[in-house]
Amino acid sequence: MLAPEATDLPLRMLRGLLLLFLLLIGIAILAMALITAAAGIDHDVMVEIAGPARNIASTSAFALFAAIMACGMVLLLLAVTFVRHLLAILDSVGAGDPFIPANAKRLDAMARTMLAIVIGGFALEMFARWLEARYAFGVSVDIGNPAGGLMLVLVLFVLARVFAHGTALREDLEGTV
Amino acid sequence: MPIRVKLDDMLHERRLTLSELSARVDITLANLSVLKTGKAKAIRFSTLEAICRELDCKPGDILDYSAED
Predict the structure, then answer these.
(1) Maximum Cα interatomic distance, chain B, rounded to a whole number of Å
(2) Are B25 and B50 in contact (CB under 8 A)?
(3) pLDDT at residue A90, rounded to an integer
(4) Cα–Cα distance for residue pair A136/A129, rounded to 1 Å
(5) Closest Cα of chain B to A174: distance in Å?
(6) How far apart are alpha carbons B40 and B42 in whole angstroms?
(7) Which value, to the nearest 10 degrees, does the dihedral of the CA atoms of residues A128, A156, A77, A52 take?
(8) Integer CA distances (angstroms), A14 to A10, A110, A117, in order
(9) Does the N terminus or the C terminus of chain B have fewer Cβ atoms within 10 A?
(10) What are the tens digits of pLDDT across the range A100-131?
(11) Comparing C-alpha atoms, which of A1, A6, A8, A71 is closest to residue A36?
């Protein structure tokens, strides 16, 4: 919920964008679930999406297809967790006091989540490529260059440390006259 | 806490109120009140110096240490 003090426009716009992002992720998860279900019900749908698999039984091909989709959905759920932490930090800015230990923990959790997304995404892409090479089974997974994600992980870990130290220093100063 | 603040005693001895001291040392009444009631976690040397200057006393006249029971 938007804190009542959060009346400043850039903050509201950022919050709106993050909520839009959450909505898009939600739609993507729903679409992936529907596609997987449709592919399970009608084999032709799967052939339409992934192409005709070679050297593998259709039930096994579907299992692999469903596994890739499930992994993709898990990665998207991790992205939801990431954005929710970011929203909570933004709300603490709106509430007037972002320099709290909870935000240091949130940044740390965001770094770990992003690390899981980068590693998981990379592994998923490698798995999809292997499937395509072996069974001509074209589930295209393109996560992009993991270097950018890894840099973000490092930045988040550093910021988490800075926040943790900063809030500890502030606690020290409280009660000093 | 084993550190006891004796500001109240010194003020009484010097016939000064906390508000008067606050005006003289340029420290807010709220902060001096925190110090006087023993709720402060730390005291800056600059605060201690200003109080000692205005009350014409030593830090030991304001702060006391006794081991906890």
Answers:
(1) 37
(2) yes
(3) 95
(4) 9
(5) 8
(6) 6
(7) -10
(8) 6, 17, 22
(9) C
(10) 999 999 999 999 999 999 999 999 999 888 88
(11) A71
Instruction: Determine the distance from the C-alpha atom of residue B35 to the mean position of all C-alpha atoms in its chain, rounded to a whole number.
Output: 6
Give chain B positions within 8 Å (CB) of A177. 27, 31-32, 34-35, 40, 42-44, 47
Rounded CA-CA distance A134/B40 in Å is 71
Does residue B65 sit in helix, strand or coil?
strand
Chain B contact for A175, CB < 8 A? yes
Neighbours of A109 (CB within 10 A): 17
Output the average pLDDT for chain A.
89
Tell me the Ramachandran region of residue B12: left when phi exceeds 0, alpha when psi lies from -120 to 50, beta otherwise.
alpha
Show the domains of chain B with their CATH numbers.
3-65 (1.10.260.40)
